[in-house]
Amino acid sequence: MSRSPEAGVIVSTAISRFLYELQEVSHLPPKLSARMRESRTLGEPLSTEWKKCGLTLIEKKSTFSSVLDEFFEEYGGRRLGPGCGLTGKQPADGKGGFPVLKLPSTGSPVLRKSQYWSSCSDDHFRTGCPLKDVKIDPEKKTPEAAAGAGDGDDKTAASSGSAASSAEANGEKPADGDEKAPSPEEVSFLRKVLRERLVQNKNEVEIMQKDPNSPLYSVKSFEELNLPPDLLMGVYHMGFNAPSKIQETALPMLLADDKTNMIAQSQSGTGKTAAFVLTMLSRIDTKKPYPQALCLAPTMELALQIGQVVEQMGKYMEGLKVAYGVRGNKVARGQKLGDHIIIGTPGTVLDWSLKLRVIDLRKVEVFVLDEADVMIATQGHQDQSIRIHKNLSRTCQMLLFSATYDDPVMAFAQVVVPDPVIIRLRREEESLDNIKQYYVTCENRDAKFRALSNIYGVVSIGQCMIFCHTGKTAAWLAEKMKGGGHAVALLTGELLTRKTAAWLAEKMKGDGHAVALLTGELLTRKTAAWLAEKMKGDGHAVALLTGELLVEQRVSVINRFRDGKEKVLITTNLCARGIDIEQVTLVVNFDIPVDQFGQPDCENYLHRIGRTGRFGKTGLAINMVDGPRSMSQLSKIQDHFGKKIAKLDTEDAEAIETAVGEQE
Ligand SMILES: Nc1ncnc2c1ncn2[C@@H]1O[C@H](COP(=O)(O)OP(=O)(O)OP(=O)(O)O)[C@@H](O)[C@H]1O
């Protein structure tokens, strides 16, 4: 049976997961269940994993399909087709029994092609997410497609078809799939590290509290909060003069003796982290050598960011100790942690508390769940957080913070935060009032580039952001503009293409480095990373070159642009979504923003061009239209906002001068 390593991983873990779930349905003997849990090693060949579980692969027709049907009834799945299912012998007493997997001899095409199974990733499996919670991702590619589209520059990604936009005019496949969108965790991390100051918001804080009669008060200064002097010094050390809008309302409740439980929602950058860090610090006694505050974040990077705030704000608290419950931080079973604050990700903290027992959850005074919206987007985190939460004492103060407020977040919040006060600060509306919007008609992308050059040739532009639909167009345009002498920053999901990686590997080898190049058609990023680790473990010096731009690299690109080192930032929808770069003078939609269904994306349009025209200045937005389709998309956007988008003739220098001149 031939299959790529990644296919093996996906299939094996999905099936193991399936079996793991199945024990609840068909009562596997405990010893076997335990062995199955142990056998979740990433990348083990399917057959080894099965053998470890005491399972055998057979090729006969299914005789155990009723169990399978029962399973799907219970978990809401469906049969995937003939020849793919469970088979085995049911013992006479009806108890126990070893389910045996049956795969078609052709390399399990049904499993691989099925959205259901390919949606079960290793993460679902590792984090113990119930199968019923596995979200089916219709965009998810089969391993073969992923391998083909991953980091090749001579292959185009699988097209989503309907997402086609103006990029079609270039004969290029317009799928977003040619680069990877930053995950919610990455976006959240990027925002945090890029944030330099508080986001101001003039809206009123809305409050919903359990007892509407209990008095509410807000503070206008940190002194009013009666903080211990060492903590107040820490706040000043952070450079905070007065509480932010959300802090004014939240802090008096958070710090009150009755340990109010709270769900707080406001946009990123409004001061939530500072508020809960202050609460954690105010609740701990550094003389007591055990964890008293616990904070969960969705990723290691975010946990470390929070830790930095804790360490800065707690700078004057003598003896304060912080531990990071994140992957790679090892603790010995039974060791008792003497740190006062634990910040970590749900999986590791769960292990530390319930498996290794290094934290006594009953002694935790305050429990914080940060970035709940990002947390629930990560499979498994929700369940793990709930399991941790269940072991906390009733007197523990529970706090949950989120940038959004939709139903899944609230449902989760209600489970982990009993009797909460809910506070909310609505995002200030962005408006198009200060922005002059134009469109330019161009035949193809070369014509778009010419139009852009004309604009640059006639007037001097401050900083400009250009949005393209795909990473490929962005890279092409960046090269063209560089050729024209512009200082250009390029922010896309792909840094190294396979070709570049191969070239770099050769260079490095030439310089005497031992380089194993792990990219290409067969290996996906995950398999490559796994293999690199394995090889390193075996003492090889391995450089892993894949097609992804690391978060740190993205930060550096954005920072360079913000510092004015480059005047033009060319980016894609995917990479720029949710990331604020303030104060550019010109926004160019090289391609009209569309959503995954090819419909005009008004929200994104507003967000993109809202970057210009801030601080009372007039901004300028230019949209490039290359056919009837993009024209119709733009008209819909115009109708949506009810603001005129005027035609601009970029062959007419005077017209350009008038348009740009108005903006200065
Ligand atoms: N009272 C304050 N005065 C001045 N600056 C503040 C204040 N509170 C927070 N800040 C600063 O504002 C920025 C955003 O604050 P913070 O990280 O607490 O917001 P957040 O809502 O948690 O955002 P995110 O969700 O992105 O983490 C940080 O640089 C922080 O140091």
TrEMBL record:
> Where does this protein have compositionally biased stretches of type Basic and acidic residues?
131-143, 170-183
Domain Helicase C-terminal, chain residue ranges per copy? 434-656
Keywords from the UniProt entry:
ATP-binding, Helicase, Hydrolase, Nucleotide-binding, RNA-binding
Region of interest (Disordered), ranges: 131-186
* UniProt domain DEAD-box RNA helicase Q: residue ranges: 220-248
This enzyme catalyses: ATP + H2O = ADP + phosphate + H(+)
Top-rank taxon of the source lineage equals Eukaryota
Tell me one Pfam family matched here: Helicase_C
Q: Do you know which Gene3D superfamilies this protein is assigned to?
A: P-loop containing nucleotide triphosphate hydrolases (3.40.50.300)
Recorded hits in InterPro entries, A to Z, give: DEAD/DEAH_box_helicase_dom, Helicase_ATP-bd, Helicase_C-like, P-loop_NTPase, RNA_helicase_DEAD_Q_motif
Q: Which SUPFAM superfamilies match?
A: P-loop containing nucleoside triphosphate hydrolases
Bias type Low complexity, positions: 157-169
Broadest EC class assigned to this enzyme: hydrolase
EC number(s) from the headed UniProt entry: 3.6.4.13
Q: What is this protein called in UniProt?
A: RNA helicase
The opening ranks of the lineage are: Eukaryota, Metazoa, Chordata, Cephalochordata, Leptocardii
Q: Which gene encodes it?
A: DDX19A
